[in-house]
Prior knowledge:
471 residues, alpha/beta
Amino acid sequence: MKFWLGIAVALLALSQTRGSAVERIFKRLHEEPPIQTTQNRADEVQTLWIEQKLDHFNESETRTWQMRYMLNDALYKSGAPLFIYLGGEWEISPGRITAGHTYDMAVEHNALLAYTEHRYYGQSRPLPDLSIENIKYLTVNQSLADLAHFIITIKENYEGLSNSKVVVVGGSYSATMATWFMRLYPDLVDGGWASSAPLFAKVNFVEYKEITGQSIVQMGGADCYKRIENGIAEMETMIATKRGAELKALLRLCEPFDVYNDLDVWTLFAYISDTFAGIVQSHSAGQIEGACQKIMSGSDDLSGVAGFLLATYGNARCYDFRYDFITGLTLDTSFNGNIMRQWTFQTCNEFGWYQTSGSSAQPFGTKFPLTYYTTMCVDLFGPQYGNEFTTNQVSTTNQYFDGLNPGVKNIYFTHGQLDPWRAMGIQDSDQATVIPEHAHCRDFESISSSDTAELKASKERIAELVREWVK
């Protein structure tokens, strides 16, 4: 019963999110890490703004903008530490600093809690739109410099904070930022917690879908994996054998989806694979198991996979997975709440991390190759953002931050064993804790009786380390 409940909640959450199916799938993979449902409602979170330079690395640049951050001072006593949760590719919200394990540690140390918003996300908008000329200031180094200015400014201006210790906390991309910030600005920070941090930039990130498949086997069973593999293979065969119209009808694809257009086909299968990735990456108790029960309830492989996908996508008349539809959304240069343009730019310009079908050791088929993603970079941002450019930029990122050897002290790395992103992070047991049967950023809640022994031990370990860092 709990498995069905898990998938019902997951499907409901995805289908009720506003926007098209592709926007919902994308958002699920890039949303704010889970916020604890039990909140301290008595705490009043302030929403504040700080002036930032548009370009920290150009002395002649005079333009500035207002970065949003949130502050919870309900626990704070003069001289106590500053705990900063770093925003990533999402809009920040107050619940992050009114509950959870970081909040509990702030209670212990009477810390001031802050939550910073990443430039170009949420309400932190350096320029009026996301045109090519404007979006070029969206880089991780500019964002890290924003954080440095924030820490210097708040310590100078907030009463009793000038000599306080600073601890940074991040999840997913913001955990990457926490690590890299400690590398670049060690004099501004005393410790950090990086949950699910990818540190090695890679263009062809085949490991992501491999671990997605492994996690499905581990939690949902080998039969579920095989059914997904067979069902998607049959979909590919339908296109190859001129049964594309049948597939379009089965998946309720909007016209004019072109089964003879590689870009349309690649888009469809990329988002099918990402639908499964969303279930795995956001896994909580029973979620993968429930998805597999739904998939296995079909009368055969094809109907099982198709039925699961349609249940996930909601009740629309049709679903638009055309390449032109995706690029149309991403070419929109307005700040409209859809972060596809911003994040895609960051991948084309700095990180890669394209979760392709380049490995046979995954069940999602062969139809979302690297060429799909590199073509999109060019179509969205211009011919200079070709495969060679992205490859060189990714190499530069790894050279600058040293990949899996960032040389950072006083930082605690955690990963969920089920999380596909762990492949790009530090997993060595001497440096990191990998928590069995947990997924992406699933260790931020308060210690509770429902925690596994490994999860509880990991939370207790970071609490011990924070005591050392702030003493």
